Amino acid sequence: MRRILVVEDEPNLASGLEMNLSAEGYEVVIASDGISAMELFGQIEFDLAILDIMLPGMDGISLCREIRKTSHIPVIFLTARDGDKDKVQGLSVGGDDYITKPFNLEELLHRISSVFRRISWQGADEEKSDIIRFGDCMLNMQTFEASGPGGAVTLSRKEAQVVKYLYERRGQSVSRDSLLDGVWGYNAFPSTRTVDNFILRLRKVFEKDPAKPEIIKSIRGVGYKFDA
């Protein structure tokens, strides 16, 4: 049984989520603030976390950052913060999905199923090719450890998947919409700035000069091309 951590400070919404997710066969653990969520995270193994952003004690963005220090479990933000900047920030700190309130329960359940399904598919594929090498750069798709001119770092799951998606299409022009659909599973975000922010961070790891990229090149009016 999949175990889901729900971090929500509105009691009625939290209990509603617990009831509906339990009815779908998930084991649900509720936390009402970020600090107690981190305590639970250190005690219990979870398969997915659903985080509000506006939380007492520790906000959801900070909580996601803390989770990403030790875990690559999927994180879905479920929040009233609906600005493009909020969505980009949520994904940039390691979120796998971002849903705004008010939300449709069926959509949330579909998103959860999609996240688990994609991880299962990608995990099976990653077992066949753990290490991606290009030039002097390396990415381990099991641990998400990467190295390049920018040094050694641990990428988020989504950052690693962006690299893998581009690497498998090296030499081809890949649109931002294609990246969103291929890595996140659907074009759910109104701004392609999501992709641009991920590319900027990846260039700092893999490019000798991030301002003059030679590996992840920009294709004007299209998107990007992996040229390694």
Characterize the structure shown.
- By secondary structure, the chain is α/β, with parallel strands linked by helices.
- The chain has 2 domains: 123 residues, Rossmann fold, CATH 3.40.50.2300; 98 residues, Arc Repressor Mutant, subunit A, CATH 1.10.10.
- The chain is built from 8 helices and 12 strands.
- It has a 5-stranded parallel sheet, with helices on both faces. Strands 6-7-8-9 form a 4-stranded antiparallel sheet, covered by helices on one side. It has a 3-stranded antiparallel sheet with strand order 10-12-11.
- Helix 2 packs parallel to helix 3 and helix 6 crosses helix 7.
- The chain is elongated.
- The mean pLDDT is 88.
